[in-house]
Amino acid sequence: MTTKKACPICEAGIQEIDYKNTELLKNYTTKFNKIVPRYYSGTCLKHQKKLANAIKQARYMAMLPYVLDLR
After folding, report:
1. How far from 17 is each of 3, 4, 38, 69, CA to CA, in Å?
2. Is 68 within the bounds of a domain?
3. CATH number, domain at 57?
């Protein structure tokens, strides 16, 4: 049997996930700037939803790119 990983955001004690904190948000996107799923990132459901909303809001505000074009 495997044990569940603890949520890295819960362990770090981060109270608020803000769309302006792009360094944190970049840790939860792939190299093509897609949102990393929960089973890879290890975040809990509550923080995964907050991360996804913050990433989408940062994209809308042009702080993060939507996709990375490697042409």
Report:
1. 26, 23, 16, 27
2. yes
3. 4.10.640.10
- Residue pLDDT, tens place only, 2-39: 677 789 999 999 989 999 999 999 999 999 999 999 99
Determine the Cα–Cα distance for residues 44 and 14; give it in Å rounded to an integer. Answer: 13
Contacts for 57 with CB less than 8 Å, ≥ 6 apart: 19
In angstroms, the CA 15 to CA 9 distance is 9
As given in the structure block, the two tokens for residue 65 are 């790119």
Which residue type is seen at 17? I
2 occurs within a structural domain: no
Q: Are 35 and 69 in contact (CB under 8 A)?
A: no
